[in-house]
Specification:
The protein has helices spanning 24-37, 60-64, 67-83, 97-105, 128-140, 154-166, 192-204, 215-220, 234-237, 239-248, 289-296, 320-333; strands at residues 8-14, 42-48, 88-94, 112-113, 174-178, 208-212, 230-231, 251-255, 271-274, 311-314. The chain has 336 residues and is an alpha/beta fold. It has two domains: 8-140; 155-333, Rossmann fold. The strands form two sheets. It has a six-stranded parallel beta sheet, sandwiched between helices. A four-stranded parallel beta sheet has the order 3-2-1-4.
């Protein structure tokens, strides 16, 4: 019903050059801003592989994931994020690039995003710095648009609330803690003992910490290092349920980005993300902190204009002492 209407913008996420990761969230919110800026009513996402039905092979993550892993991520990460966009009007998935070209050829160029996109000359926008560039352009034009726009589903919120009730978690005191325990680039993984100690400390202060572990751990119910803590097992498996819990929480805290970074685009979320300053991602490792700044689209110590200071990065090593101090400073500035 959307393909023949002139009020829909078609946003192409070209998987020949773009990652099959949570970085898609950046493209999704850029698409929503571009839609509003260009006076379209809806967004329809188009996903396509390259001419040989192959995916991007650029980063360690790209190379570590099998084709089956990538299809799983397309269904369980990319598609759910697309559906969180308020103007979402469906999506198309093309394993055959020629078929994608046929769909796009039926559209006038102004309906296609990114601008000047063509399957023979693909472009993509999935970096945080590009989110900020588009946001600033909209502000300069005095347009009332923001990337802080993701909408959690009512089902996701209701299911998360039911879980909290069943597990004696007071949502007014709920603090989610998202940790990383991934087999790819394991040097960036979370020191679980530091975060467990932090959780124990805030428990004493009356907060109700709940951990969201990596999907690899959740599949096996691997509670290594967290045996006496509450773990929200459904969240790492189902993104809709994860976002429901984030939306309910008084505060969201994480080590590294990935799924927890969705909080930057979740209205009302109060969010602290500890950066891997002691294990900078390999894609910017040679640049050091300046590479991290470029990757994030903000300078050290700054946050995003649209975030209103209540969504921040922490450029310090995630020791239990540092986490506890930063958290207490944060909640003092931004009471629940």
């Amino acid at each position: 019903m959307y393909r023949n209407t002139n009020n829909t913008m078609y946003c192409v996420y070209d998987l020949a050059i773009a990652p099959i990761t949570f970085d898609f969230m950046h493209f999704a919110v850029i698409s929503e801003m571009a839609r509003a800026a260009n006076n379209f009513d809806y967004v329809h996402f188009v996903f396509t592989l390259n001419a040989e039905r192959q995916w991007r092979m650029h980063t360690p993550k790209d190379k570590a994931l099998s084709v089956e892993d990538k299809m799983y991520r397309l269904r369980n990460i990319i598609q759910p994020i697309a559906e969180m966009i308020p103007s979402y009007a469906g999506h198309s998935i093309y394993l055959d690039r020629i078929e994608a070209a046929k769909e796009l050829a039926a559209l006038i160029p102004q309906m296609i995003f990114p601008p000047q996109y063509h399957v023979n000359n693909p472009s993509s926008m999935f970096m945080l710095e590009q989110v900020m560039d588009v946001y600033r352009q909209c502000k300069d034009q005095e347009l009332d648009v923001t990337p802080d726009c993701l909408v959690p589903s009512e089902v996701g919120k209701d299911q998360a609330l039911q879980w909290c009730k069943a597990n004696d978690v007071d949502v007014d005191k709920l603090v989610t803690i998202t940790v990383r325990q991934c087999s790819v680039e394991p040097d960036r993984n979370t020191n679980m003992e530091s975060w467990r100690r932090f959780a124990k400390n805030i428990q004493k202060d009356g907060w109700h910490p709940v951990f969201l572990v990596d999907t690899e751990q959740a599949m096996l119910h691997d509670d290594t290092g967290l045996k006496d803590m509450k773990i929200y097992w459904p969240g790492p498996i189902n993104l809709e349920l994860r976002m429901g819990l984030y939306d309910l929480a008084a505060y969201n805290v994480s080590h590294n980005g990935g799924p927890a970074a969705l909080n930057f685009f979740l209205p009302g979320s109060k969010y602290l993300q500890f950066l891997p300053v002691d294990a900078i991602p390999k894609v910017v490792e040679s640049e050091g902190e300046s590479g991290m700044e470029r990757l994030l689209g903000v300078k050290k110590g700054e946050t995003y204009d649209f975030a209103g200071q209540s969504k921040q990065y922490v450029w310090e090593k995630a020791t239990a002492t540092n986490i506890y101090r930063e958290f207490n400073e944060f909640i003092t500035k931004f009471p629940a």
